Amino acid sequence: MGRTKLLDLYQRPGWQKLTTMQDLRKENAKMTKEADYLRKRFDSISEKKKQVEDRCNDLKVTVSTLREELANTKEDNAGLRKDNASLRDQVRFLKAQVPNLKPSLMS
């Protein structure tokens, strides 16, 4: 290329200066380091994502178990309420019988 054509290329809008092979090697080495860093970062993020997903699945199992236990507890409470109501009725009945028993004990 003639000198005038090179100068013409430098003056075009948006045209970056021509680089030497050494400049390209430096840029390549820099980009390789950046790519390695980004690859490690991606692997690290992927591993953390996997750990979070595993923890999420564990928590889902725990929530499911707790819901089941809650349902069982509600059933137990309903049964206990029925038993308590029955016992209250029996206590009321027995208290009502106490005045009737006192005269028979005195005789």
How far apart are the termini?
139 Å
Largest sheet: none
- Please indicate the percent range of residues in DSSP E strands (runs of 2 or more): under 5%
Please compute the radius of gyration using only Cα atoms: 43 Å
Kindly state the percentage of residues in helix: over 70%
User: What is the N-to-C succession of helices and strands?
Assistant: HH
The geometry reads as rod-shaped
Low-confidence parts: none
Number of strands: 0
Number of helical regions: 2
Structural class, judged by helices and strands?
Answer: mainly alpha
Describe this protein's structure.
This protein is an all-alpha fold and 107 residues long. It has a domain at 47-106. 89% of the residues lie in helices and 0% in strands.
Defining key terms:
107 residues, 89% helix, mainly alpha, 2 helices
Summary?
The protein has a domain at 47-106. It is built from two helices and no strands.
Question: Topology of this protein?
Answer:
Elements: H1 3-11, H2 21-106
